[in-house]
Predict the 3D structure of the following.
Amino acid sequence: MTKNFAHRGFSGKYPENTLLAFEKAIEAQADGIELDVQLTKDGEIVIIHDETIDRTTNGKGLVVDYTYEELKKFDASYIYTGQFGFNKIPTLKEYFNLIKDTNIITNIELKTGINEYKGIEEKVYNLIKEFQLEDRVIISSFNHYSVLRMKAIAPRIKCGFLTETWILNPSKYIKNYCVECYHPHFAMLTPKIVNELKTLGIEINTWTVNKEEDIRDMISKGIDIIIGNFPDLTKKIIDETLNK
Ligand code: G3P
Ligand code: CA
């Protein structure tokens, strides 16, 4: 059955990658949450999409140039002009505390595409172990070297290669590296590619699926996880499909 993951939390209606967006995703009965992690100057794992804080907060500059004490003073919901009060950039630890007693599965995207954040894989894995969440996480990255570093440290952790373009023979590529999941943009999921991936037992987790027709298309193709900004809409459509 297709699972419903909230992209950066319930980011269609609430400030992305904040504890508020994660709480709202849980309230919307999402099966899982996708989020992005980077490292601060003092090595804290923080949840934020961009390498800089310019787009999503009222501050400026690189995440890696701030300590967490400095970073937490910026408002990660400022573009909503006070609608949701003040929301800080959360740490991964705070997020784990929020979801640890739920059934939420977490897709942690390592944002190692531009800054490799040396040691981030081990730090993330140590926190997963501390919270005993080994069976409730999927690690993904556009940086496939980073995914393989995680796999080498933690062979038991489910991992996926993220792609945003048409790669040749994705099923063979993924199988070759003993990675469990493929995380392409949904436009790349032709029936032929889906069939090849399924034949090799590769889990297909796709993004960012926000429109009703695309959600229906992904369900009909038997995609494992739909990652979207509107987990309420995805849930409604999955429930309707099940009750048919
Ligand atoms: O992990 C799926 C998706 O989040 C990848 O793209 O840019 O939204 O992080 P982006
Ligand atoms: Ca992401």
Notes: The mean pLDDT is 98. The pocket of calcium ion (ligand 2) is lined by residues 34, 36, 109 (CB under 6 Å). DSSP finds nine helices and nine strands in the chain.
